[in-house]
Known about the structure:
heterodimer, A: alpha/beta, Elongation Factor Tu (Ef-tu), domain 3, Rossmann fold, 2 domains, 7-stranded antiparallel beta sheet, 6 helices, 18% helix, 29% strand, B: alpha+beta, 4-stranded antiparallel beta sheet, 13 helices, binds flavin-adenine dinucleotide, binds iron/sulfur cluster, binds FE2/S2 (inorganic) cluster
Amino acid sequence: MVTIAKEVNFSQAEVPLKGTVVGAGDGHRYLPRAYIVSARKREAADTVTLTLKPKDSITDACPLPEPGQFNMLYVFAVGEIPVSVCGVESDGAFRHTIRRVGAVSAALCDSKVGSTVGVRGAYGVGWPVARMKQRSLIILAGGLGLAPLRMLILQVVRSRVDFADITICIGARTPSDVPFLREIRSWQRLKCDAGLFDVRLIVDRADRDWRGEVGVVTALLPRSLTAPELSLAMICGPEVMMRHAASGLVRLGLSRSDIYLSLERNMKCAFGQCGHCQFNRYFVCRDGPIFSFEKVASLLNVKDL
Amino acid sequence: MSSASDLVGSCFRVSSDVLGLLIRALKDDGYMTIGPRKVAESIQLEVIDSVDDLPRGWGDQQDAGSYRLVRRSDSAYFGYNLGADSWKKWLDPRRKLLWRAKRDGESWEAEQSQMQVPRMAFIGVRACELAAIKVQLRVREVTQAHSSSPDAQSSTLSAEAPAGVPEEPFLVGINCSQAAATCFCSSMHTGPAFGSGCDLVLTEVINDDNHNFLIQIRTKRGAIISSKLPLLPSIEDDLAHIDRQIARVSDSQSRQLNISNPAEFFSRRLEHSHWDDVATRCLSCANCTLVCPTCFCSTVEDTTDVKNAVAERWLRWDSCFHLDFSFIHGGSVRSSTRSRYRQWLTHKLGTWHEQFGSSGCVGCGRCIAWCPVGIDLTAEVKSLSQPTQ
Ligand SMILES: Cc1cc2nc3c(=O)[nH]c(=O)nc-3n(C[C@H](O)[C@H](O)[C@H](O)COP(=O)(O)OP(=O)(O)OC[C@H]3O[C@@H](n4cnc5c(N)ncnc54)[C@H](O)[C@@H]3O)c2cc1C
Ligand code: SF4
Ligand code: SF4
Ligand code: FES
């Protein structure tokens, strides 16, 4: 018999590709769970808060979100958009506050009590709750940026003693655009011995009845801080505002790694697969939407990134 | 032969008619055989029934902005290099149904689509294409590892991955007998020599009166199929022949891409003036992303029937060159061609390393040939290496 040429350096361990080479089974990751609109509340002229309850059993529900995480909400035959979770009820229902800006957000705002909305989630990295204890908190919200911060603020209010000074700055275009106004008023009335609990509200344009402050939300930032190294800041709102606010806080002595902000990008999948939300090396849906300023400061300065 | 697995690691010589027997053996084993076909004026990757479907005697001439099929002087089966199609067309179809929902009054229920994936055999995979398949595989692994939390916590049957993960495709590799002018696999270390992953690797050997294939058996699966073929022993010089051919193809490549620290290279050049220069040429047509074997971006489409009773969600290929890709209320994040080309190149060659641990480019050169204005990423990288103007 003739000898057969054997490949030198050939390892027997060489196996064919192992793993999900074929992208067939993705359907389940996009599958919405049916939720029922159990309450609908008008928050401002163009903004509605929906309470969504799992349609069937709680076992069919999405996992409970952390403050700052978001869900994908689907309206039958219209489409699906990312929306932050602004509250979780004791019965596991989710609260979402939605501003009407286009087709899907309008359909969500118009959905009636009793109708079905699709939910998948929870997605993303939330606020750095684990880093907050014993620290002074500066929370800054522009407009609907308050939505992803609301759950966090409720937690802080509930366990007030765990934190040092708390400063909450909220800005809106006009008095009628302020979301959660009654709740904000109730936070403002909270008395507290543990330390400062300051909730401040400002509008860009006042109306006749407005007695509060007028200006941009960054004007509410403290002038100085006694212990910036003990402070942690959480910011959500338009990107320009967040950039200004974060730079202002750096000037007050906060470390970039102690400032967090929430980014908004187009999202189709929410789990790092569709590529739409890419922000340089990050997938905003998966690595964010909450980032430390340290990670994104230089990228935020690049136009159209 | 005592058992098929003894064949793993061996190289045999077969006459060129055996190619037809190999295709038949794969079909008999239940594989859907997919390979090159001449369709109109290009080579596409389609279902093939027999060896007669292969583009015998055809070669291609490629350069920046051009691709042309030409008659070869011989009757090589695999004498072309690459067409616009890549295997991602089969691994990750252009458009697929994710789920379907039926409405019942105010309420509705969504049901996951059960996509039937055939057992596929790919015939004529090039080294760079195998590398691209591995890049795709890595992307899937990383996204799945990250996204496991919502799914893993869920207890619903409806949300579980369909049973029966499709079998990995059977891969029949072919060593390139020449490089196209657009090829630069050598500098990307993705070719012309094959990495691991093919079941069989073929080398086409055409002499004056002989037309043979050398067949290297790389896996047990490959050995079982090969044991049905009339194999002839190869000689030591056959292996040396393969090595010489690979070395020749490698040496003939004039295009190169060498960036020593790619992630840093691009992060330092986000504001380079050369992006403006590319933007004056680039049409934002998205051809480059469509032909690229590793581009994975997708979008969803929500459709409904006329009665508004059945809604469907489809996944389809998308491109970062489309203006609405980055749309958010108020306007697109990347509204200029400059920013979109920068996103593409920065991702492909730079941030891909940070996300997936490798380059997103395997050096196949498709984006160079299929760019209507002949933009060549290897040349753009050279310009980016120069100081900003
Ligand atoms: C992480 C995250 C959390 C969000 N939280 C909230 C929230 O709590 N409340 C709220 O009202 N809005 C929120 N948004 C914004 C909301 O997703 C957009 O307003 C919505 O996508 C607009 O879709 P549309 O169909 O109504 O508008 P159109 O303008 O018709 O949008 C067309 C498409 O563009 C995309 N798109 C448009 N605007 C945005 C945007 N701002 N962000 C992402 N994609 C966009 C969507 O894919 C949409 O399908 C959030 C966005 C993100 C990324
Ligand atoms: S970027 Fe161009 S050369 Fe690189 S793998 Fe994609 S198509 Fe091929
Ligand atoms: S680089 Fe070429 S192929 Fe890619 S989008 Fe621009 S013009 Fe089209
Ligand atoms: S939304 Fe799809 S990757 Fe982030």
